[in-house]
Design goal:
The protein is α/β, with parallel strands linked by helices. The chain has nine helices and 17 strands. The longest helix has 26 residues.
């Protein structure tokens, strides 16, 4: 069990994919802007854990290996678990440096550490029987058939007339494997970066004494962030996105911004289809799950620019039981 060190609240901050940009150069600039905002949260007396999306980054890494292999078959293909781990490593490196710059300017002696994080999933999850998440480069039909012949466990489908792409499962995350390590770092007063992209999906390998092995899958980053918050005993989960509030009738003349949202109302709005399936709905669902997980827990959905205001109750949408 972790002991709190000089902290009023333990907060998991989930940076959305837009917060990091699409290229390494853009990412460096974006995280330099993020650093001072994260220190503002610590300045309020919070202990923070940072997680992040990795969609553009993991796709870039996998495409690079695919193209390199096509040019020179002596260069191996790199499967999704390894690409996910690589993306966690270099995003964590950029965040460590950016936060380090902010710490230096603020004359703070705190430390930052990144943890390559595995997320356990159930090998019997129904998602593995019906993979739907497209990943990687577009291929011709002939290339896709060649890959499926080489790798019978892989599935490729035609994607809207643009070519063939591999599809993988999106199973439900069950456990943050490195949670004890994250808690130990918090006890030593580290700012921790972890569980990027929802973590690298792993399953138990009972042919190897139950050790973990990676699987080609994609963890929903919002559900991954929620599980991280639960497993690391957080009080608050902050899901940062491009807008200040969750809204009803989003983008319409009668749009209503929501500042306070009970889990009952949130579930009703989800059932009504009020939130975008691939955008806001997963965040609200993750917020509901976290708020229901233990008395007093709150999820805040808001914008990165107003993160400190959000936790102070001056911005964002608060989801609570």
């Amino acid at each position: 069990m972790s002991v709190r060190i000089n902290s009023d609240k333990r907060v998991v901050i989930a940076l959305g994919g837009n917060a990091l940009g699409d290229t390494p150069e853009e990412q460096i600039q974006r995280v330099r802007e993020v650093g001072p905002k994260l220190l503002d949260l610590i300045g309020q007396g919070n202990e923070i854990i940072i997680t992040h999306g990795n969609g553009p980054q993991v796709g870039m890494i996998q495409k690079a290996f695919t193209y390199a292999h096509q040019v020179n078959d002596g260069i191996p293909m790199m499967d999704l678990p390894e690409c996910g781990a690589m993306s966690q490593g270099y995003i964590g490196y950029h965040l460590q440096q950016a936060i380090g710059v902010a710490l230096h300017k603020a004359y703070k002696r705190w430390h930052v550490a990144s943890v390559i994080t595995q997320t356990e999933v159930d090998s019997e999850d129904p998602a593995f029987r019906n993979p739907t998440k497209p990943i990687g480069a577009f291929l011709t039909k002939e290339q896709a058939e060649e890959e499926m012949a080489k790798h019978p466990d892989q599935k490729f489908v035609e994607d809207s007339g643009r070519g063939w792409r591999r599809v993988v499962a999106s199973p439900i995350p069950r456990k943050i494997v490195e949670a004890p390590s994250i808690l130990n770092l918090l006890n030593d007063e580290f700012i921790v970066v972890c569980s990027g992209g929802g973590g690298v999906p792993v399953v138990r390998d009972f042919s190897d004494k139950g050790a973990y092995k990676g699987v080609a899958a994609v963890i929903d980053k919002d559900l991954g962030g929620e599980l991280l918050a639960e497993d690391c005993l957080a009080d608050v989960l902050i899901l940062l996105t491009a807008v200040d509030h969750v809204a009803l009738n989003f983008g319409k003349p009668d749009q209503i911004d929501l500042e306070d949202l009970s889990v009952e109302d949130a579930e009703r709005y989800i059932a009504e289809g009020q939130f975008g399936k691939g955008s806001m709905e997963p965040k609200v669902m993750a917020g509901v799950k976290f708020a229901k997980s233990r008395s007093g827990r709150v999820c805040i959905i808001g914008s990165l620019d107003k993160a400190a205001d959000a936790i102070a109750g001056k911005s964002g949408t608060r989801i609570h039981a």
